[in-house]
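explain this:
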Amino acid sequence: MSENIFIDKNLSKEEKYKSLIPQIKSLITGEEDFIANLANVSSALYFGMNYFWVGFYLVKNEQLVLGPFHGPIACTRINLGNGVCGTSWQQKQTIIVPDVDKFPGHIACSSDSKSEIVIPGIIKGEVIFVLDVDSENLNSYDETDKKYLEELVNFITQTKK
């Protein structure tokens, strides 16, 4: 198991993902502890992509509960349909928000967050977690982020025991 992630900061966004995703897959392959894997994924994404905030919310007792993350302190619990994370959970689909201040019902865990992408992790038709990524800049996320982050989330759900 590799314990280092190597990303050339001069690469394009897509090139960074193409370099990072295989390293993350290698990092978590063979590890059975789901929370440990989420912790390493959040760290690798945070440092590899230079995100403002990245983390997981886990579905527990009909709420999203904060899981492993990197970045400023975050909201601990989110209800179904609330904010970007709760909406992604409810709709069972990725949501890209170019300007969080224009998203109805946005939950401002950090006033420094300006844009966001949330990807649900789905097993047997049920969301078990969401991956939440925030930026301190507007319009940070696009179809490139969606493509690679969905690939990663799908891999994570396939490795969950």
Summary: The domain at 13-159 is CATH 3.30.450.40 (Beta-Lactamase). Residues 143-159 form the longest helix (17 residues). The CA atoms of residues 82 and 105 lie 6 Å apart.
